[in-house]
Amino acid sequence: MRRMIDHPTRDVGFGVYLHWPFCAAKCPYCDFNSHVRHGRLDQARWRAAFAREIAHAAALAPGRTVTSIFLGGGTPSLMEPATVGALLDAVAGAWSVAPDIEVTLEANPTSVEAGRFRGYRAAGVNRVSLGVQALDDASLKRLGRLHSTAEAMRAVETAAAHFERYSFDLIYARPDQTPRAWATELREAIARAAEHLSLYQLTIEEGTPFHGLAAAGKLTVPDDDTARALYDVTQEVCAGEGLRAYEISNHARPGAESRHNLLYWRYGEYAGIGPGAHGRLVLPEGRTGTSTERNPEAWLARAEAEGHGIVETEALGPGDQADEFLMMGLRLREGIDPARYAALAGRPLDSGRVAGLVAAGLVARAPDGRLAATPKGAPVLNAVVAELAA
């Protein structure tokens, strides 16, 4: 059996990400590893393959206590509750599970998927994240969503009836969106969301239908100034309503933050299971990145034949880890501990570069020594990270 080793990222927790790659339809803005299959899936076969890869991950990283599980996709709410239960049972059989574990499932707010919520709760899910994306039907249609606003709000009510913790996503900087309209939509969302919202600015990703439409002049998104105004409205409205940003795109009431996503941003350890999943495991040879086969059927064949679908492992050197730690941690309002950076990188942050960023108002140093991006620095975070990592 592999031995456990000390590492600067081992104290954050241990998460398991389970990727269900299938969707009922592919949204035109989406570049995630998601696939449409029109035939009926043999979910029992998929359950068995996931269980094999979970067992393989546990052999690589034994003795952990799982603090969070996230079922993402794709559309995990296309899974039968029995499949969700089998996956969670496989995780519990492979590792110890924390008594207060957070188990999140992503769901689309169609009536069919919301109808499974009772079964997911019985299977062990205790938090759902709903892909609402917009609160007007014209935008939903343009975004390629299969639900209406009314259906989404019914799904939110159903989620509230079955789960103490729930969240939903919205996309802003949509075509023709104004700051005033977004502020109104956002206040309506906050009234429904209770404790947590994920708010993402629309980006045009290469290879998506939206990219082709934009290139042909058939899709126009807000210009940079309007997009910045929409971002500012997002921060102001959410803070005013008690849902301050704890991460650039995530807003929550105190104590309602997504623990699984905090594990990512705090640079913790996690296993990535399923087609196209990525993991970060602390192995005897050091912190290691894992990637699985993206194509669902090819992943399934590998998992059945070899016990896992991992196609790439990468030993992460001190520089890689330090860069990832900066990139992830500075997204958080709490920022980073420079001592952890030094432990990962084998050297401290450059004091001159830090001082320059502080003087420019892009980062701030807390009384306990932590460094965090300021409201001025958050919108230009990539440049801040590049300066610190240089």
TrEMBL record:
Residues 4-244 form the Radical SAM core domain. It is found in: Cytoplasm. It comes from the Bacteria. GO terms for cellular component: cytoplasm. NCBIfam families: hemN_rel. Belongs to the anaerobic coproporphyrinogen-III oxidase family. HemW subfamily. This is Heme chaperone HemW. The lineage of its organism: Bacteria, Pseudomonadati, Pseudomonadota, Alphaproteobacteria, Hyphomicrobiales.
